[in-house]
Give the backbone structure.
Amino acid sequence: MRFVKTVAVSALALAVSAPAALAEWQLRKPVEFIIMAGTGGGADQIARLLQGLIEKKGLSSRPFIPINKPGGSGAEALRYLQDKAGDDHTVMMTLNSFYTTPIIQEELGVDVTTFTPIGLMAMDTFLLWVHTDRDDITDLDSYVAAVKGAGLDWKVGGTGSGQEDSVLTAMMEAAFEYDVTYIPFPGGGTVAKNLIGNQIDSTVNNPSEQMEFYRAGSSKPLVQFTGERMAAFPDVPTAKELDVDIEYYMQRSVNGPPGMSPEAVAFYTDLFGELFASQEWQDFCTSDGLTCDNFLNGDDLAAFHATQVEAHKKLIEQVGADAITGE
Amino acid sequence: MEAILIPLGAGLLQAFEPLNLFMIFAGCLAGLFVGCMPGLGSVNGVAILLPVTFLVPPTAAIIFLAALYYGAMYGGAISSITLGIPGASTAVATVFDGRPMAQSGKADKALMAAAIASFIGGTVSIVLFTLFAPPLAAFALKFGPQEEFALMLLAFATFIGLGGDDIPKTIFSILLGLVMAAIGFDIISGQPRMIFFDMVEFQRGIGFLVLAIGIYGIGEMLWTLESTKGQVQMHSVNITWARFKENLREIKLYINSTWVGSFLGFFVGTLPAAGATPASLMSYGLSKTFSKDPDSFGKGNVAGVAAPEAANNAASTGSMLPMITLGIPGSPTTAILLGGMIIWGLRPGPLLFTESPDFVWGLIGSMYVANVATVLLNLALIPVFIRVLAMPFTLLTPIIFMLCVLGVFATTDRMFDTWIMLILGVCGYLLRKLNYPVAPAVLAIVLGPLAERSLRQSLISSQGDVTTFITRPISLTCVILALLLISYPLIQKMMRRRKMADAS
């Protein structure tokens, strides 16, 4: 142990005394690329695409290994990253449960503002989806009527209590004054499959999760929760056009554990910045309805996170944490 | 039929192109290695080797990764049999009978059975895949939470219904596994639960491999040390042509278990969320329940090696089905394959078959060839693998110990899990001394979380009404089968008694 400490201390001394080494900070082992959601969902698809692009473009000397930690609406992943404080070889693909889960589960003891922001890759969007078999549902009005008719027999699938889709579901419940039964699944891909298999009645999937089923004619979007209509869905009205004041986005940012070394932060920021600017990523954004205009990083991203945490606190207060956790 | 045969022929031709053929062999060989190293499962193998695939066209790339996945399924059996450490979670059931066989000098027979059963399992599975992919995908969609839970019930039933074993002790073991599975975050509400001594490390739960390596690696090692006082004479076998032919003739001993495992494995593999590990455990349980000689299972019955090996290979092919047709990976490894496909510009989903037929059929064709390649490689390498057993026990034991520690640390990256593994190893050894079966605990820790999730989803969706499990046809069928399986040993006993009464 003493030997290790000596080596560590002398390595540190060397690093401090040799500024040239700073610029050439390199990975020393494979990077754990944590995904705080299950396989097949939006975050998962994005992380795996990014991992592949890193390999394809040869941006990293060591592999990025994607690991899904979907437990407890991302609680498992958050806790994991918190415990990795000071580690330079772990980064996490996050979504909005990055904000909501620590608010709802105070006992988790995670404060995401202490995490190391690396880069905001995209803002993802939400649409309301039903199966194409539902001929009775053609627009938002007929949807609300169908839900009210079914009452608690109306099953909405989502990715977990406290996840962003449950927040959005609670917002809809408040706006339309109905109650639904919310069933959590381990990832957006599984939710999509259960909608196509008619195991659930509706869902608020991200575009990337439903795209292939939509193209195959198995599911249809009713409304999009964006400010303006997305290029990928020109015929689907936004909620605002229908006088429903719901606009909700999902952030897709990469973050590191608390206390990551500045050299590592610089390395990852460069790496993800390059990915962000790549043609492949921008193409994916267009085809999957993601907004990828601005690569926020460093203090800007930290400020963004802080505002989002506050906004979500307010949102959860409004709809009530109980409405989200279904208790 | 023509609609299938023509593209399949083209696919096979594609698989025989020199580059693709090379990729198949390279993938199988890499997979064998990755699979037999504890802690270096197919997930890591595929993730690490993903970059290799950017050097070749997409079809060759997916062929390589699929062959690797395949080879890893075989590879897992090698360390299960020769060292008694499951190389991957899918190979745990292979330890049950593979290890005792190796200890009694039949390692070559066990490895051969594993290779042949895997070959049959893989082939059956790929034929079913070729013929019925679209209808099976439609069937997989019918599986909601209720059906999933009923299937899990069926899986548990295959283990409770074992004749011969002490039923209360089996139930105790299952419950122990379920309790361990419940540690960590509640899967529905996300609240932490059963955090012993408030140690935050418990929030991550106890992984399945931690338990399996502890019980089988460490527990078994302690047991062997005690029962032999270190005077272990590992039987090494000389492989001769005559012995090989004799082994080939023994196929009839396990062919039935192999068929059962193949069909069951494929079916379970096609369901998203299940995967190869539950499939191999279920296949083992089923094979034992319906064996003429269930008591010999766990003591070196070759059918106990064949059943799970057929199932895990069949399931690994099966789990490609939801990935290709629905875009939902059936296992962590297929999730990485999925990532690869997205990079190559292929979007898995219902349209892949029609939009990229060359790719899909090339992959299917390669799976036929990969099967043949792995079985040939395996049979040829058996003499190499069993050299391990010729090592003196004083050398082998420390190696096993080291691999156990390394295997757990490599997968979880935490010393905490390594300690838990060692503690569980000692517990496993004590349970074994007290004649408790440990396999059901392993089964429970795998199936527990799957069963809990589907049970709670079902009850939320039916608003607490338990009849939801018997009002849906598929679910009802599974529940009835489960009940039959549980009562099967009782029925058997009654039949025997009646026969005896008739005779007198």
Observations:
- Chain A has two domains: 30-124+250-321, 127-248.
